[in-house]
Amino acid sequence: MNNFFAFFVRIIAKYELAFVPLPSNLKNDKNMVDIKVLGPGCAKCKATYGNVLEALKQVDVEATVEKVEDIEEMMKYNVLTTPVLVIDGQIKIKGRVAQVNEIVELLKK
After folding, report:
1. Does 65 score more than 50 pLDDT?
2. Annotated catalytic residue: which of 13, 32, 38, 45?
3. Is 96 a catalytic residue?
4. Could you give the CA distance from residue 78 to residue 27 in angstroms, rounded to a whole number?
5. Pairing of β 84-87 and β 33-38
6. Annotation marks residue 35 as catalytic
7. pLDDT digits (tens, 9 = 90+) for 2-19
8. Residues 6 or more apart from 63 whose CB is under 8 A from it?
9. In whole angstroms, what is the distance from residue 6 CA to residue 12 CA?
10. Three-state secondary structure along the chain?
């Protein structure tokens, strides 16, 4: 059943469909990467989100992608500049648009 949901997530990323939250038991899958793009919805945040989806098309990584626009949720990460790219709970890039090739490299690690 996990493979079905992983496939579903890849389809969502490939065709740039809206994020669909997965059941909590799948989010803990060791092979599943949790990606969040934090930002209020500005052009840079949207570009970073789009670049994440493009990067996922280029690598064979199972991931959940979430766009976080809630200010209170963003404050939990103690960041003052957006957009912010968070991979598996760690801030990787903040204050600028993450480029596709950068995201691909981060996902390969």
Report:
1. yes
2. 45
3. no
4. 23
5. antiparallel
6. no
7. 555 565 555 555 555 444
8. 9, 13, 32, 33, 34, 35, 56, 107
9. 10
10. CHHHHHHHHHHHHHCCCCCCCCCHHHHCCCCCEEEEEECCCCHHHHHHHHHHHHHHHHCCCCEEEEEECCHHHHHCCCCCCCCEEEECCEEEEECCCCCHHHHHHHHHC
Q: If you classify domain 2-17+31-108 with CATH, what class do you get? A: alpha beta
| Among 42, 58, 76, 105, the one annotated catalytic | 42
Q: Given pLDDT bands bounded at 50, 70 and 90, which one contains residue 108?
A: confident
**Would you state the pLDDT for residue 9?**
58
pLDDT of residue 80: 86
Structure token digits, residue 104: 């691909």
Report pLDDT digits (tens) over 17-41: 444 445 555 544 567 899 999 999 8
Cα dihedral: 31, 22, 48, 42 (round 10): -160
| Alpha carbon 35 to its chain's center | 3
